[in-house]
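[audit] Reproducing an earlier prediction to check determinism. Same input, same settings, fresh worker. If the tokens differ from the archived copy the diff job will pick it up downstream; this log only records the rerun itself.
[audit] input (359 residues):
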Amino acid sequence: MNGSLKLVAPLVAALALAACNGGTSSMPAASGGSQGSALTYKAMPQWMSKHQARTMCPQVVGKPTCLALQVQKGGVTPLCSPSSSCGFTAQQLEAAYDITHELGNGSGTTVAVIEAGDLAAASTDLASYRSEYGLGTGNLTKYNENGQQSNYPPDCTGYGWCLETDLDIDMVSAACPKCNIALMEAKGGISDFEAAEKSAVAIGATILSNSWICYGSANCGDSNFPNYFNTNGIAYLASSGDAAFDNIGAPSVLDSVIAVGGTQLARSGSTYSETIWNDAGAGCADSSNLGGGSISKPSWQHDPDCSNRTDADISLESGCSPGVAVYIGIYGGWNGVCGTSVASPFTAGIIALKGNASS
């Protein structure tokens, strides 16, 4: 790993324990996303069995899939107003993780989020989110996978990533309002994602958040894949997945990446509490979980129950009861969103607040 992560409690949530652990819609169907065999759930996640949420991207094995879950009630996707009825607001998240007094930090730090497809309304959607919560004007710059501010990929609706993109830029804003956000828009192939990772570093991002996963794979089908997540002085984060115990994959399983799992945040008055979200990806990065591949146990892990790399490292709000409020204009406005794709970009913002990207 690129040094040891030194986030100061209580800015982080509970450690993820490796030993723990449909519906119809009028949304556009994902047609341009990664093609692969469908993910098999070893144990049906509660968000699925209890009809708490639905996936936005095709859930496949070995190929990149986004992890945003759209909150549902009884199998129906509700629009919510006011935004606080959607889930946790920016101010509630800031209070829950005791970062309100830190929000003046992060200026000049660039956090990159890696996405598939072009969200043309990204700037206006983000402005709506930040205006709702008094976060000030944001500094969002959109790039293609090669670091150009032009020649963007096809529309995100074809990939199913539109809600994921808005979720990620909203969560970085909530945790670090003064951070610069680099929106890296790639096409759907693994080489495109790799190019976006490389370009994000080249344009000056020091913290990279990845709210996507290649389930059941240690390298997303490319033996060179780990090399794109191992630049000295750069903090790489990745969501651990939403398919519960023993459904994990790259990039979160890499030993150079901070694997971000999930908790369920709860609020009673001004008091917040957390429990492990059982649907968060967790497990041992061995051949049984990674299609014959494996990741050796890094020197900084000392848990006794997994002889390989343990996933995840840290956890934060991901649960669906409630999720978090996100603004997306093409889906009617305010939506509730959950999944470990909430946790990765918010944690990336906390790292930026504390100035810990290089350590």
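[audit] rerun output stored. Observation attached for the diff report: Residues 1-32 have pLDDT under 50 and may be disordered.
[audit] end
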